[in-house]
Amino acid sequence: MSDVARPFTVALPTDQELVLKVIPMPADCNASGDIFGGWVMAQVDLAGAVLPARRVKGRIATVAVNEFIFKQAVKVGDILSFFARIVKVGRTSVTVQVEVFAERFALQGQYIKVTEARLTYVAIDKQGKPCPVPEA
Ligand SMILES: CC(C)(COP(=O)(O)OP(=O)(O)OC[C@H]1O[C@@H](n2cnc3c(N)ncnc32)[C@H](O)[C@@H]1OP(=O)(O)O)[C@@H](O)C(=O)NCCC(=O)NCCS
């Protein structure tokens, strides 16, 4: 069985928001033809910032990648869907859980979870110092 037909497809989450869709290109590959982990991390950082930025309504900075798991390889041409939800709002920080699902090019409509991560963003002022997250 080829790697595009392995039976671990899942349903997309219904309790999280779709914050980004993107298709990796050949320039994002390593020498083995798989997508660089660093490229995936950059996309997750962008996707993870969407809900904290909306909540803070101002400038934010990534302070921590609390957890990052690469569950399956990402391939050129995969349609990646990034889902996020806020898991914690602190005094100056917002923590989000991000899950990434791939539709293989040849198997669209079937989703494989490829990555999950938890990241923390901090609300910052004009001087780049932490400031309180506004009330919801
Ligand atoms: C983000 C930054 C402004 C925070 O400043 P700081 O003085 O370290 O902040 P604090 O120690 O007061 O922590 C601020 C918040 O971050 C949280 N935090 C800090 N380190 C954390 C970690 N490792 N994991 C989770 N949360 C963390 C704190 O708990 C606090 O949240 P709270 O107020 O909701 O309780 C500063 O560290 C910074 O500028 N970092 C660089 C950011 C950046 O450039 N990011 C892009 C990566 S290249």
UniProtKB/TrEMBL annotation:
InterPro entries: Cytosol_ACT, HOTDOG_ACOT, HotDog_dom_sf, Thioestr_dom. SUPFAM superfamilies: Thioesterase/thiol ester dehydrase-isomerase. Residues 14-127 form the HotDog ACOT-type domain. The keyword Hydrolase applies. It comes from the Bacteria. The keyword Hydrolase applies. It holds the Pfam family 4HBT. Keywords: Hydrolase. One of its GO terms (molecular function) is fatty acyl-CoA hydrolase activity. Its EC number is 3.1.2.20. This is Acyl-CoA thioesterase. It comes from Limnohabitans lacus.
